[in-house]
Amino acid sequence: MPLALEPNRTFEVVLKSDKEKPKSKQPSFEFRILTAREWQSIADLVDSLSGVETGKEAINKIFEVLRKGLVGWNCMWDEKTQKCLPYEPEKLEDILTLGEAQELMVRFRNQNFEADDEKNSG
Question: What CATH number is given for 3-112 in this structure?
Fold first, then answer.
């Protein structure tokens, strides 16, 4: 069955910088699988990254793309509060570096997940 026909199918992305952490403490981002038609609807946004006039505009577009498929995160440990951060997609810019956001965007755009990262959240 095609992945997109399973509406609760998601995949996790672990940043390269977090791969060495124990699984129980490994931060991850959960994305839903997008259909080709859904990708068509945001292709202009992705393609427009090369034509932006300001760095701020480019950064905003990267985070906009991420929010199109991001449905959760796990183990986002905040050293200040000594707690895991609840999923709040509007705070994505507060927890990621630009390089990490770019890594996530590439892996999300490619629907790039490893077999053990695939989940069926339903």
Answer: 3.30.2220
For residue 27, give the nearest of 96, 105, 110, 115 by alpha carbon: 96
The amino acid present at 91, given as its one-letter code, is: K
How far apart are the C-alpha atoms of 116 and 48, rounded to whole Å?
Answer: 33
> What count of Cα atoms within 13 Å lies in the side-chain half-sphere of residue 44?
1
Domain ranges of the chain: 3-112
pLDDT over 70 (residue 45): yes
For residues 45 and 1, what is the distance between their CA atoms, to the nearest angstrom?
Answer: 29
**CA–CA distance, 111 with 32 (Å, rounded to integer):** 9
For the chain, the farthest-separated pair of C-alpha atoms sits apart, in whole angstroms, at 44
pLDDT tens digits for range 1-29 = 777 677 678 899 999 999 999 988 899 99
Over residues 80-115, the pLDDT tens digits come to: 888 999 999 999 999 999 999 999 988 988 876 554
CA 35 from centroid of its chain's CA atoms: 16
